[in-house]
Amino acid sequence: MTTPTNKRIVLVTGATGKQGSAATRHILALPTSSPTASETDQGGGASVQQPVEWHVWALTRNPSSPAAHALAKEAERNHTSDRLKLVQGDLDVPASIRSVFEEAADEEGGDGDGGIWGVFAVFEYPGPGVKSDREKHQATALAQLALDFKIHAYVYSTTIPAGPKPEDAIEPAHRVKVQMQEYIQKELGPKGLNWIFLRPGFFMENFDGRLGPLCVTLFRDCVKKDTTITPVATDDIGRVAAGIFKNNELYIHKIINATSGPTTIQEMIDGYQRATGKPIRTAPAFLVKSVVRFNATPKNIIKQVERNHEARTKTGECPTFEAEVALAKSICEIRDYEAWTRWKIAEGEHGKGEEDHGDVNWNNVSIFKLFTGRS
Ligand SMILES: NC(=O)c1ccc[n+]([C@@H]2O[C@H](COP(=O)([O-])OP(=O)(O)OC[C@H]3O[C@@H](n4cnc5c(N)ncnc54)[C@H](OP(=O)(O)O)[C@@H]3O)[C@@H](O)[C@H]2O)c1
């Protein structure tokens, strides 16, 4: 006879993308576990005493897309397919997401009351310089649904603001996240939304793929030599997210910055060389300088990076980088660029690892867009 389990369904948005696929992978990898002491103390009925089993409902607009297939294939390889469900929905159409919550509510499990137990919320990058009204509408509607359906943990993946003032968020994609955090904290938190903000640093994947050489050269040649940046691998964002869901009570109404800690671009370049035995790919300096001259996006990236460094290492306006990541690092190890590069090589040799999410067009930024500034 099999032991009955307490099924916890986490709805992951952006599940076919970089962060969402990583969160899916790591949530599904969480072991079936006993409930925590405080859960059993609540005396909340038989289901609370049962082992917790983690399920992911992966939201996509198209469950037949190659990215959705890749997600399903990965779960198959990891023997977790029985706990992954691809669900169709469009964040621009809140009714389609409500249907997903309603469908889940009819399921057995979920701490005895069925339904979606947690949400990992990621919203697509709109493109450089593009107004983020879409994220505003999508994030408002999803957070409201999470409140309506009394979700236990609503993890919103946002971003680390460059400084304490709203105007420190130069790029619209950053600004909207700052606004949404404020809205959720002030409006929905007091009404009972169990929000948690997961704020990742600059993705290590930005230094990969077609645009990687441009990115490396931009940071090497256009940012001050001693300026530190705080990168993070999206796989580690997923690992932190899974850790948050596992012990959600510890993190309700907390802000968790996920980065590998401060590093200079030169330290990353050296780390890459040590890991691969090869120099990192760079772009011709004149090309990168032309991109910077003609386009606001790289200029804004440079401005934000310098501001970020200044606010944390010079003016004392923000906690230090090390203090900011302490909570995330208490959840799990977060790899530096060298360790992540070594991991990717090892996983590649075994034919496993991350599926390729968006090499050609990272973050909706194509080389064309970078050159022309058009989105
Ligand atoms: N790059 C960085 O350094 C960095 C740093 C911090 C934060 N961020 C933030 O990270 C976010 C992007 O995360 P990511 O790179 O992991 O995403 P991504 O790889 O670009 O994937 C985007 C995901 O959004 C889904 N999606 C798009 N429109 C949708 C809609 N209308 N309804 C439902 N799903 C939709 C797509 O799913 P389907 O196509 O399958 O529907 C896809 O899974 C952005 O908000 C960005 O500002 C980026």
TrEMBL record:
Pfam families, alphabetically?
A: NmrA
Q: Which SUPFAM superfamilies does the UniProt entry name for this protein?
A: NAD(P)-binding Rossmann-fold domains (SSF51735)
**InterPro entries, sorted:** NAD(P)-bd_dom_sf (IPR036291), NmrA-like (IPR008030), NmrA-like_oxidored (IPR051164)
Which keywords, in A-to-Z order, does the entry hold? NADP, Oxidoreductase
> Under the cellular component aspect of Gene Ontology, which terms does the record hold?
nucleus
Keyword hit for Cell wall biogenesis/degradation: no
| Domain NmrA-like positions | 7-318
Is-annotated flag, keyword Metal-binding? no
Q: Name one GO molecular function term.
A: oxidoreductase activity
Q: Gene3D superfamilies of this UniProt entry?
A: NAD(P)-binding Rossmann-like Domain, UDP-galactose 4-epimerase, domain 1
Query: What family does this belong to?
Result: Belongs to the NmrA-type oxidoreductase family.
Return the protein name. NmrA-like domain-containing protein
Q: Which organism is it from?
A: Podospora didyma
Which lineage? Eukaryota, Fungi, Dikarya, Ascomycota, Pezizomycotina
